[in-house]
Amino acid sequence: MCAPVPALPPPHVTPAPLHAFAPGVSASFAALPPRPVARDCRTTPRPAVAAPRGSSLLLHETPGGPVVRRLVTRTEFGSELRLPVVRRRGPWLGVLSSTLPDGHVGWVRQSRSVRIIRRVRVHVLVDRSRGRLVVLAAGRVVRRVPVGVGAAASPTPTGRFAITDKLDGSAFSAAAYGCCILALSGHQHDLPAGWRGGDRLAIHGGPAGASSAGCLHAAERDLRWLMRRLPTGTLVTIRA
Q: Is 191 helix (H, G, I), strand (E, B) or coil?
């Protein structure tokens, strides 16, 4: 994850594998069509969240198409896997996953091996240029949070992501991450030279006023509120 710059990278962690390419399968994906972010807060999306049953879940390139990932029931950080549903096609659910390239969707079949566990009525909008994060609930603004963004050489990526994990910052580096980490499904593609802290995006704490390697960072009071109120699977839309 992207800590403030400059900062020491977190201790090296070797997580259990989260996914594996299926043998002989092309690594292409069905692109998630661009979806303009409405500036009217009343038009917030309300996605469902799917959870796997059993030991693994197959992620397909297209509905009924080739298998491109085999997901296990926990993320690489140990949280229960929750996949936000952003598209539907018959029994097939189009989901976001940290194992896919940013801006792409994978497909799982709704069956005994996957179930819808809840509807998410909160949505996070981030305006990168203004350094502002807004939490919407049922179309209403419930929290505005000032956020720091990536440095000029490692800007925060834009797009549609999801919260995958809620983590204790001290388990990685309290100095770099503060109290709390909300890991996102997205990835940073413009990491600083020599960076060893991984490429996952996140919302976390850290030194006041510092620019990051791409993550968003906020004050501790706001982070603790976000940790309480935002479930895993919540969509986070970052715009320029």
A: coil
